[in-house]
């Protein structure tokens, strides 16, 4: 996991905005960070990157209306400045969230052809492939599409090119959300990065691509290149819900928030409750899946289901679900809890369970998240509270 963020628009401080947005994504990756700015004056892309926590960083960037950035959680290569993102190859600047599983075979070919690498990352290989395709005469969009075909594994990428303005993004498996206000467009791994500016969003789905330049946003199919239309969504979050406020840690904030969050969590329309009850009653085998603290919530739920509902259920960390896959069939209910609704391990569980015909129930804070949209029944937890 890592956090990625892009800004384009009318304001010349895109680099500082990206730094600020990345600080809200630090929970996704915190070993190093980097920002690339397209300098207004020179039309070159300048990269600043450092090892360590981003939260206390306070530096200035060259003036520019376009920037991309990354907070890293290293998977390939140690925590070094060279391995931090963005990576630059020729005229290509790229940041990447995910794992390029078959990167080694491509790297071997490039090395055999005499290419040199600055880092040990899988990401830099993506830069090499895009750059090679550009040199063969493909357009930036074509080069990104073709490169995506080569990547096995989950990824989301942001790409800038030295000779043509605008920012490209593509997704397969890792979240990307576009935020739009009057003057600027943003692309982020999670909404808090731009929540201060706008709540108007479009969710990029798997195998989709987007190009942003000033106020213009063009969505396309990552495989065919054909244009696609996306639904505009107004997220119901308020900034203070995603910020620590006066609390020292998110955990303390969440503990004090419980009196409201529990009320929100249990107060649902009868219709949705009935759909969930039916789904669970009709099932033969129920799995609660989640990651991190949400997994702890599932452990508590296991007691409630046993003692109150008289029903034995299974609690499995999303990353371990593959060991239980043979028990998943059309009568299984898989219940996922994910705050963002974009947790990669849960998306994988849902995709595989759906393919086996299981019924999917989820609880998330984001109505139009990937997890929510895949579900047969979805509970939106962070919503405007009705009077109890
Ligand atoms: N695989 C890439 C790396 O190790 C990206 C990791 C991430 O998602 O932060 O640099």
Describe this structure in words.
By secondary structure, the chain is of the alpha+beta class. It folds into 2 domains: 3-242, Glutamine Phosphoribosylpyrophosphate, subunit 1, domain 1, CATH 3.60.20.10; 250-380, 3-Layer(aba) Sandwich (Rossmann fold), CATH 3.40.50. Helices cover 29% and strands 27% of the residues. The chain is built from 10 helices and 19 strands. The protein has helices at residues 14-24, 103-112, 123-135, 140-150, 239-242, 250-266, 270-282, 292-307, 344-355, 370-374; strands at residues 3-9, 32-38, 45-51, 66-72, 87-89, 92-98, 155-161, 164-172, 177-180, 184-188, 200-203, 208-213, 216-221, 233-234, 286-290, 314-317, 333-338, 359-364, 377-380. An 8-stranded antiparallel sheet has the order 3-2-4-1-10-9-11-14, covered by helices on one side. Mean pLDDT is 91; it is low at 384-388. Glutamic acid (GLU) is lined by residues 1-2, 29, 72-77, 96-99, 121-123.
SSE topology sketch:
Layout: E1 3-9, H1 14-24, E2 32-38, E3 45-51, E4 66-72, E5 87-89, E6 92-98, H2 103-112, H3 123-135, H4 140-150, E7 155-161, E8 164-172, E9 177-180, E10 184-188, E11 200-203, E12 208-213, E13 216-221, E14 233-234, H5 239-242, H6 250-266, H7 270-282, E15 286-290, H8 292-307, E16 314-317, E17 333-338, H9 344-355, E18 359-364, H10 370-374, E19 377-380
Parallel strand pairs: 15-16, 15-17, 17-18, 18-19
Antiparallel strand pairs: 1-4, 1-10, 2-3, 2-4, 5-6, 6-7, 7-8, 8-12, 9-10, 9-11, 11-14, 12-13
Helix pairs in contact: 2-3, 3-4
